[in-house]
Amino acid sequence: MIELDGVSKYFGDEAAVDGISLTIPDGSLCVLVGTSGCGKSTTLRMINRLIEHSAGEIRIDGHQIRSFNEETLRRRIGYAIQNTGLFPHWTVARNIGVVPRLLKWEKAIVERRVEELMTLLGLDVDEFAGKYPHQLSGGQAQRVGVARALAADPGILLMDEPFGALDPITRSSLQAELLRIQSHIRKTIVFVTHDMDEALRLADHIVVMRAGRIIQQGAPADILAHPTDDFVETLVGGRDRGLKRAALTRVGDMMDPAGDDAPAAAAVTPDDSMRLAVSLMLWHGVSRLAVVDEAGQRVGTLPLSRLVDQAG
Ligand SMILES: Nc1ncnc2c1ncn2[C@@H]1O[C@H](COP(=O)(O)OP(=O)(O)OP(=O)(O)O)[C@@H](O)[C@H]1O
Questions:
Q1: Whose C-alpha lies nearest to ligand 1, atom 1?
Q2: What is the ipTM of this complex?
Q3: What region holds the ABC transporter domain (predicted)?
């Protein structure tokens, strides 16, 4: 568990972070979101002591971070950033294995770990292990960056706009990968972004920051449903909020399991989002969809009225 208790950071007289309190339970994915300069990166970097906090307390598993040796702390905490920070003259495999080597793991164990992580991140070992960072696409380099952050199996992973520089399609697939990986490894992840759609998709818990302060925090659905002020409402999409909420809702949670009278022209699966369902209804000009399982067997019906009921 990570706890921030009345934490501030001053640069000169200016407070970049101004008395924030936040608890991040083990295994949760907490996203810090807000416009440029609001103090997100500073908050993240105080957790691994790349920046020392000026006031308040930061605790990991109940222990103040100042009681840890800085090197030990940083090796316990994975850190992935936007431009990856890979060593340009090292191969992918050497880059990924850097922290385990610093920790003096046996060579064979480091090699096995590197291969395991490359597989986890969808990087073919034979193809990529010997490549250098300049030979990788942006998306591949980001995967290497995340693999490196996970190499020594840290309990905590800090991610600072890790997908910020990518095109929307690569970004979306890496977000899906992160969710898939997190469902297996259950790290405590603190993720920084200025993109509310990314926050809504990834987070268990969203922390909205403005001018160094936390102005709202909660589950994505709560923030969408009850933005605390006009600023948060604008951030979550204003009048576009309905579609954002639909993107967070699974068809399986809304469908009528008994119904079987929908036209077969269009079908969704229980794991598809309600946003996709609405899009298909608009495209096909229907107000009901068939819901099918992966084998194509009918498991229910989704009437448009379910989406409208949800809003009520
Ligand atoms: N080393 C520093 N010296 C002085 N001021 C700093 C320093 N680092 C950050 N700041 C200031 O602290 C404030 C918060 O910066 P921070 O990088 O945490 O914001 P951010 O929300 O991560 O922004 P962005 O999304 O643009 O990265 C900004 O006003 C910034 O100019």
A1: 11
A2: 0.94
A3: 2-236
